[in-house]
């Protein structure tokens, strides 16, 4: 019976799956695309934290690579070959799990000789970014040691140029990097519990985007370092709702996100890293943010893409 049914299936039922068409970003010179708008729990809302910065439509900088972002990277039409840099805000799994998948993808492409990888130093329970990458791909003990060329450059492989930023104290000085010739990324230490963590300011073609990363309200230096920048976009992480019982040692409440946005005054504020618990109380959260920030505000979905203006 099963066989007979199979035999009568129309031919198109056996066709090979087709990849989704790459999703288009606005034609602005600088765009920011959300690859993962949620995490760390798989709640059917989206992939975990990850963002792609495009210049003239070309993906050039990947920020974080949370679980699920590998799939979105492909759906966004991105390739590793066009990237000049990858920046990791911190080394929690919900920001880094898909990095090996993306490096593995790069092994199938023609890459340049070096790829910049920026991330925090180590402290306590967290390795520094160099040790973290060694744990993934070092020739002696890496989990994916067959990708060791990313560390030692053997067999003509692209080498990761790993730069650690001291971030175990939020008053550690910011560090500025050139990503290719036309993107400048400033890594700024923020407070995220015991995980050395960074927020990022990205400047390109006269446009500015801020990726606040995971931070709590003790990250006082962050806003003052952005004074006068008037960013075109700021992405903040809307992980917790207002009220007691939330992990405020790790994250800002909506009131605190509003205070940050009020001080930094971005032209557009994006709520990402959304969780069910924060979205269930979205109206209350937005009202709390609105006390301090009156500008345009959007809630991110995977693959949303924002133009930074002309
Ligand atoms: Zn996180």
Automatic annotation (TrEMBL):
Residues 1-15 form the signal peptide. Residues 47-273 form the Metallo-beta-lactamase domain. Pfam families: Lactamase_B. One of its GO terms (molecular function) is 3'-tRNA processing endoribonuclease activity. Keywords: Hydrolase, Signal. This is MBL fold metallo-hydrolase. SUPFAM superfamilies: Metallo-hydrolase/oxidoreductase. It comes from the Bacteria.
């Amino acid at each position: 019976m099963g066989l007979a049914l199979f035999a009568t299936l129309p031919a198109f039922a056996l066709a090979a799956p087709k990849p989704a068409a790459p999703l288009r970003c606005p034609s602005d010179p600088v765009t920011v695309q959300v690859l993962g708008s949620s995490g760390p729990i798989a709640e059917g809302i989206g992939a975990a934290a990850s963002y792609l910065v495009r210049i003239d439509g070309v993906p050039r900088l990947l920020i974080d690579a949370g679980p699920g972002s590998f799939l979105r990277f492909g759906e966004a039409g991105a390739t590793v070959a066009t990237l000049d840099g990858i920046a990791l805000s911190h080394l929690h799994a919900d920001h880094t799990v898909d990095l090996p998948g993306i490096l593995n993808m790069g092994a199938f492409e023609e890459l340049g000789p070096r790829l910049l990888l920026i991330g925090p130093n180590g402290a306590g329970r967290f390795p520094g970014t160099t040790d973290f990458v060694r744990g993934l791909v070092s020739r002696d003990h890496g989990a994916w040691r067959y990708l060791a060329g990313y560390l030692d450059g053997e067999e003509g492989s692209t080498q990761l140029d790993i730069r650690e930023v001291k971030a175990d104290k939020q008053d550690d000085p910011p560090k500025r990097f050139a990503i290719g010739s036309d993107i400048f990324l400033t890594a700024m230490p923020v407070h995220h519990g015991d995980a050395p963590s960074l927020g990022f300011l990205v400047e390109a073609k006269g446009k500015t985007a801020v990726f606040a990363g995971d931070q709590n309200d003790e990250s006082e230096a962050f806003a003052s370092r952005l004074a006068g920048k008037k960013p075109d976009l700021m992405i903040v992480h809307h992980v917790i709702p207002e009220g007691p019982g939330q992990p405020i040692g790790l994250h800002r409440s909506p009131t605190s996100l509003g205070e940050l946005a009020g001080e930094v005054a971005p032209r557009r504020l994006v709520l990402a890293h959304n969780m069910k618990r924060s979205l269930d109380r979205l109206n209350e959260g937005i009202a709390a943010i609105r006390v301090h920030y009156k500008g345009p505000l959007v809630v991110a979905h995977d693959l949303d893409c924002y133009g930074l203006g002309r």
